[in-house]
């Protein structure tokens, strides 16, 4: 075999079995597993805190301040990890960051077994959040860059199914282990380490994004990866169409005349979508009890299960009804629902529960779009930093909501707290009414063209 043939074979361009449809399907299944696994972990580490919060509070002597800070620690970590990871993924590649973030998560998660103070627990969960933030900024872009155009919405939405499933399963696992075993809260929190170890091993050997390679002028490698792993010739060709139109890169491009609308929409839509959910979902037990409803497993799992159903329905409909239809109307509905909860102070508990369930279903539905839009509206050269920046902005709201909710419920009251949540949801609805794009059925070269008029 000539040296040229050996080179081509090495990069996968002439190996028929490795470019077959079956090979590409297996690769996509593996990609889906590791990407959804990352989102599952994010939901898991946030959902596992609630069931053990009373035990760790008592053992560590945690004040209300530290309780909120520990619950929000991972969210604040995402605030820093998302833009940092996004910058690094755009500069150094998706592949190295994809391994590094899971490695950091595995180490920091394992440290939960050994914490002995509120400060240590906060720092450990902050580091876990940094890793998850990096996962946000590289995972969704990587999925969008490999996913077939015809399935992109559903596949990216599937990561959100994993997030809500992780949150719900963590709550159930934490509740069961806390109530039925003698395992300590450190072990219960540290169960995320076992999931992280599996995902770290499963990521070994995954390829670099062909769009990033092309953007780095590594054209030969980009074509080889696209041919070997991408489902159709049209998707592979779109790599060249999008990347041929690149003009500059960097954080500043997010605020350029062409892309500022995408940055504003993605950041604030995400902020307004997650802030009420994290605040209510993390402390579902205490929120429901404040309204005279039974807490415990039924309350926390009930809200999470309904939210998961909302995500599943959205994923099934996203490539049929389109992005905008599933983004704008549900936000207005949730605004009204939260306002009713806040204003109807004498509502019977069953009515309040129904309203909370309606909010959980539809809020989770449009939250699904926060995992779809970033990979579509930002171009390759800033796809990761754009996603990371938007994720960071969203986690400011999520972190503050989680941190301040216990204080707000005590000092402002349940009614006032729900009205504040309604105002945030209404802001997101108005912004989406103005800016939310329709990207259904479009290639990335079309969706990343920017919000031009």
UniProtKB/TrEMBL annotation:
Coiled coil: none annotated. GO terms for cellular component: membrane. It is found in: Membrane. Residues 31-440 form the Major facilitator superfamily (MFS) profile domain. The chain crosses the membrane at residues 32-52, 64-85, 97-115, 121-143, 155-177, 183-206, 262-284, 296-318, 330-362, 412-436. CDD domains: MFS_SV2_like. It is a multi-pass membrane protein. Keywords: Membrane, Transmembrane, Transmembrane helix. GO terms for molecular function: carbohydrate:proton symporter activity. Pfam families: Sugar_tr. Belongs to the major facilitator superfamily. Sugar transporter (TC 2.A.1.1) family. This is Major facilitator transporter. It comes from Caballeronia hypogeia.
């Amino acid at each position: 075999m000539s040296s040229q043939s050996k080179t081509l074979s090495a990069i996968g361009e002439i190996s028929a079995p490795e470019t077959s449809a079956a090979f590409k399907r297996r690769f996509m299944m593996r990609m889906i597993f590791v990407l959804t696994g990352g989102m599952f972990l994010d939901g898991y580490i946030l959902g596992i805190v609630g069931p053990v919060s009373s035990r760790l509070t008592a053992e560590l002597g945690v004040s209300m301040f530290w309780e909120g800070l520990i619950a929000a620690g991972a969210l604040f970590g995402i605030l820093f990890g998302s833009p940092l990871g996004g910058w690094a993924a755009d500069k150094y590649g998706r592949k190295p960051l994809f391994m590094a973030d899971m490695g950091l998560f595995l180490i920091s998660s394992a440290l939960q077994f050994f914490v002995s103070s509120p400060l240590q627990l906060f720092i450990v969960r902050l580091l876990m959040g940094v890793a998850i933030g990096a996962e946000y900024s590289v995972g969704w872009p990587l999925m969008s860059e490999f996913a077939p155009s015809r399935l992109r919405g559903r596949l990216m939405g599937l990561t959100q199914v994993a997030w809500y499933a992780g949150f719900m399963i963590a709550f159930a696992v934490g509740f069961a282990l806390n109530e039925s075993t003698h395992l300590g809260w450190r072990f219960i929190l540290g169960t995320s380490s076992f999931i992280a170890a599996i995902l770290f091993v499963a990521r070994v050997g995954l390829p670099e994004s062909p769009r990033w390679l092309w953007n780095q002028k590594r054209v030969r490698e980009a074509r080889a990866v696209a041919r070997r792993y991408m489902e159709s010739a049209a998707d592979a060709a779109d790599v060249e169409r999008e990347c041929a139109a690149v003009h500059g890169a960097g954080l500043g491009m997010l605020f350029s005349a062409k892309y500022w609308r995408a940055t504003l929409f993605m950041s604030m839509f995400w902020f307004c979508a997650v802030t009420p959910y994290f605040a209510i979902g993390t402390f579902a037990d205490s929120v429901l009890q404040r309204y005279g409803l039974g807490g415990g497993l039924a309350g926390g799992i009930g809200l999470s299960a309904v939210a998961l159903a909302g995500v599943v329905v959205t994923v099934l409909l996203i490539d049929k009804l389109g992005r905008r239809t599933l983004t704008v109307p549900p936000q207005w509905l949730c605004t009204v629902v939260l306002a009713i909860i806040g204003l109807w102070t004498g509502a019977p508990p069953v009515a309040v529960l129904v309203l909370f369930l309606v909010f959980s279903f539809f809020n989770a539905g449009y939250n699904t779009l926060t995992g779809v839009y970033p990979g579509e509206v930002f171009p390759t050269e800033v796809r990761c930093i754009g996603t990371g920046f938007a994720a960071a902005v969203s986690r400011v709201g999520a972190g503050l909501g989680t941190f301040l909710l216990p204080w707000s419920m005590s000092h402002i009251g349940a009614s006032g707290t729900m009205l504040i949540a309604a105002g945030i949801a209404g802001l997101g609805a108005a912004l989406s009414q103005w800016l939310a794009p329709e990207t259904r059925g479009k290639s990335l070269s079309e969706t990343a063209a920017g919000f031009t008029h």
